[in-house]
Amino acid sequence: MSGARSFLKLEIGRVIRDKVALIYLVIFPALGLLAYGTLFMNRVGRDYPVALVDRDADYGSRLVGHYLESCPELEVVSIVRTEEEARGEMARGRIMAAIVLPASLESDLKSRRPVRVDVLVDARNLVNANFIMTAMQKSLGFGQAGIKFLIYKKLAPAAEARKMVQPLRFRSRALGNPTVDYSFFILTGVLIMILQQCLLVGSAVGVAGEAERGALAGTVAEAGGALRYLLRRQLVYTACQGPVLLVILGGYCWILRMPSANLLPLILFLVLFLEAVIAFSQAFGALFRSRQALLQSALFFSMPAFFLGGYTWPIEDMSPALRPLAAVLPTTPILNAWTTLTAIPDSFRWLGGAYLHQALLAVLYFGLSWMVLRTVIRRGAGKKASA
User: Fold this and answer.
1) Are 342 and 257 in contact (CB under 8 A)?
2) Which of 175, 333, 343 minimizes the C-alpha distance to 253?
3) Would you say 50 and 23 are in contact if contact means Cβ atoms under 8 Å apart?
């Protein structure tokens, strides 16, 4: 027991004295979250300036304008007569979209002919273009129903007009993304990838540093073998990183105003994720004999892990050859469960498979780190004997 205490004390001292590990484990996660988080503090998707190309100035086009104005994402800042005028306004940066209404709008509706409405959108920024297109589709759908009802009401009694047109009003409620914008989606992915990359480098650099100094075999022997060495390092890094994760989670939820439903189940998931990444990092670090080589290789790990994790592109739509690789990445379970846990109350009841997946990855990578470390030490001993 005294040997375990002395080893833990020594390992904690190494973490504190190791500037690279300390920077990656404590400073970079907080700075990364704040740096990316402040980009999205104000959200997006409100009062995009648009123009209405009204060629006929009839009642139908005015009603479309009213529906556009009622949409919180859009603001009609000008009404022009020609499409060329609208293009000029867009070129000068005064508007971001224009709705071109045909001159025959009301007569076509009265004759029950299909009406074509052209929409011009400045798509240089895909985030803005996506919000504008969605808002316009919603507004024009309401406008079309309202215009048809008023026209039919002129042609028939109100009761018959209601049978001919049933205007629908709906209220959308996004369960997985209550802000219905990109901030929640992007910040979630950024947060997980920052945590993974910083944990990976901060934990793996200690093992690689021991190998670089030629002290890895001696440290493992001092700990009582590879298994005890890894268990104690797992405990040390969990104790050091746990409080940091809680502070970062607090910043994510309260400073950046992100959803925080199921907070305790989310903390449990973060702990499982922490254990999986630390175990993975120990296997990763044992493969290198210098810290510089480890840092260079770690730079290329984060981006593929993000894209293969099923967050930006669904796993079921990936090539079958890539799905097993996605399943064994330490970030895959938490990336796909985070938004559900944080945004949907009591959703942890249905996420047992994701918890089990994350726990199994922690066990899998711990076993892998044990096998890798034993192999590296045996090979090192064999080389010394042959020399």
Assistant:
1) no
2) 343
3) no
